[in-house]
Design brief:
The protein is mainly alpha-helical. It has one domain (35-140): Four Helix Bundle (Hemerythrin (Met), subunit A). The protein is built from 5 helices and no strands. It has helices at residues 5-28, 37-47, 51-87, 93-124, 127-136.
Length: 142
């Protein structure tokens, strides 16, 4: 049996799509065995700060938590849209694209809100605290 170039391309594109969906899911899938990425990042940042800066940073992040947790929940709610679109019969490429676009938009909104919280918290700490954060960044560790 000889495979046509079109069939090979369709299989490759399908496999690529499946892998992208798996990787996207790993980014936001809740997993009780590991700390949540958001809380883990915040904890790592707080760990290097002095006591006063740690309290300030934490307070700012906590004040912003309702905003970014709501956006994170919206990301989670978009996940089933992709699954439903993939499993729908008849299958619709447009529906799958729309579901992926909805997830991407919700992820973008979450990222912007969370980054804004990090910026505000970082702005609220001392220059020494910002230097400690900088020194702890992976590219600056020795």
């Amino acid at each position: 049996m000889r495979l046509s170039g079109g069939l090979i391309l369709k299989v490759a594109l399908g496999a690529s799509l499946a892998l992208n969906l798996v990787f996207a899911g790993l980014l936001v899938w809740p997993d009780a065995a590991r700390p949540h990425r958001i809380r883990g990042l915040q904890a790592r940042m707080e760990r290097v700060l002095g006591e006063g800066d740690r309290e300030t940073f934490h307070a700012v992040m906590e004040a912003n938590r309702p905003r970014y947790e709501a956006a994170q929940q919206a990301v989670r709610q978009a996940r089933p849209l992709v699954s439903r679109a993939i499993g729908a019969e008849p299958f619709s490429e447009a529906a799958l694209r729309d579901a992926m676009a909805a997830g991407r938009e919700r992820w973008r909104a979450f990222s912007e809100i969370y980054e804004d919280s990090l910026v505000r918290a970082t702005a609220a700490i001392s220059p020494e605290g910002r230097h400690r954060l900088l020194a702890d960044m992976p590219e600056n560790r020795e």
